[in-house]
Amino acid sequence: MKKTLILVRHAAAEDQKLMVRDFERELLGKGKTDASAMGRWLAGKGISPDYFVSSPAARAYQTAVIMGDQLHFQAADIVKVDVLYDGGPRGYLGAVNALPETSNVVALFGHNPDITYFSEYLSGKDLDSMSKCSLVIVEFENQEWAEVSAKTGKFILYQTPKELRDLN
How many angstroms separate the CA atoms of 87 and 67, rounded? Predict the structure, then answer.
């Protein structure tokens, strides 16, 4: 059985300001547009996650909600996992290892630099730094989520919103 993990860096958010905690930063209009476009792109490719897991930070969760809307995934079903906000790559691994085995295609929404490091950790592919609202798809053959670890995944693709805009 194949498992597919879609790692998504949150879309463009407001800059850190006085009186607004980092955790509460909201998406900008550009971020909302990019998240919608990336969701439509996944839907157009026939890639339909059956489970969404997100950092509870506003900008990551909003990215998940908007992409989920394009993929007919209900916002109420998005699982927020605290360690995806500041738990580092180990937190990401713990979140993936705890995914339900009944899910085969999972979208995970998080933050840089952790999500880039985690993508590289799983696939061995050097990505430098994932751009905002970009995604990496990694596949795992004949593994359960609990068995996922360093370089056990196969890098499939890296897609950015800019690449989608350049196609149009």
Answer: 23
Query: What's the CA gap between 45 and 58, in Å, rounded?
Result: 27
Cis status of the peptide bond prior to 161, with omega within 30 of 0: no
pTM of the predicted structure, to 2 decimals: 0.96
Residue ranges of the chain whose pLDDT lies below 70: 18, 168
Whole-Å CA distances, 74 to 42, 49, 86, 116, 121: 16, 11, 25, 26, 30
The torsion angles phi and psi of 156, rounded to 5 degrees, stand at -105, -50
> Which pLDDT does position 165 carry in this prediction?
85
Sequence-distant (6+) residues with CB within 8 A of 61 are 54, 55, 78, 80, 109
Beta bridge pairs of residue 157: 137
Taking CA atoms, 86 is separated from 96, 111, 114, 157, in Å, by: 15, 9, 8, 25
Please, are residues 33 and 39 in contact by the beta-carbon 8 Å criterion?
no
Length of the chain as a residue count: 168
Burial status of residue 21 (CB atoms within 10 A of its CB: 0-12, 13-18, 19 or more)? exposed
Task: Specify the pLDDT at position 133.
Answer: 98
Whole-number CA gyration radius for the chain: 15
